[in-house]
Each structure stands twice: as C-alpha cells, then as structure tokens.
Amino acid sequence: MALFFKVLTKIDVERTLSLPDGCLKALPESQVSHGKELQVMDDVGILWNFRCVIRAGVVPKLNIVSGWTQFVRIKQLCSGDSVLLYRDDDTLTGARYKIEVSRSHEN
C-alpha cells in the first residue's frame, strides 16, 4: 500500500524530508512520535533507520530528520528525483515499510 510519493526539493535533499499532508495518519503513531525510528527497506534490501519528528502547527507535519541525509548521499539523490514509501504486508513477518527511488531525467 503506497503511503506517499514525493518529488524531492532542494530542502528535501539538503536537510530533511518533509512528508506530504496525510502521511502522519498513514503511519502507526508508535512509529512517528517524537524521536522514534521508522525502519524502511530500500530496493536492494538495505534497512534504513529514519528518525521521525512531528512538527507542531495548525497542520502537524511529519519530518524525517535523522538518517535521511545519509540515505540521500548514498543514493546520490538530487532535487527533482522522487521517492515512494509504501507498506508491504507479509503474512509471515508482518508489515514492513519500503522505499523506492526514481531518478529525474534531468539528473
């Protein structure tokens, strides 16, 4: 089940990934409360630990602040590339979160 798709901005690749509205509701509260880690597997099977922070405001926003810049650097992501985060439900192991990267044609 797709949780979000986002075309990355300059801020996303340089600092933190700000997730689209509605993403907060799609993830379990225990996974995204302040300082909690969200484990996400990439397309080659590497498990990434992203630390999530909920930014307060009129509309609370979910930001991935820790682990994200390392992911960006290793994957050599640029502004204009996109990411897809989805939940893969496995009857044996339970729900797992996965991330896929798509390159912009300009990069």
UniProtKB/TrEMBL annotation:
Matching InterPro entries: B3_DNA-bd (IPR003340), DNA-bd_pseudobarrel_sf (IPR015300)
Subcellular location: Nucleus
Lineage per the UniProt record: Eukaryota, Viridiplantae, Streptophyta, Embryophyta, Tracheophyta
Xref: Pfam families: B3 (PF02362)
The keyword Iron belongs to this UniProt entry's keyword annotation: no
Name of the protein this chain belongs to: TF-B3 domain-containing protein
Classification via SMART domains: B3
Keywords from the UniProt entry: DNA-binding, Nucleus, Transcription, Transcription regulation
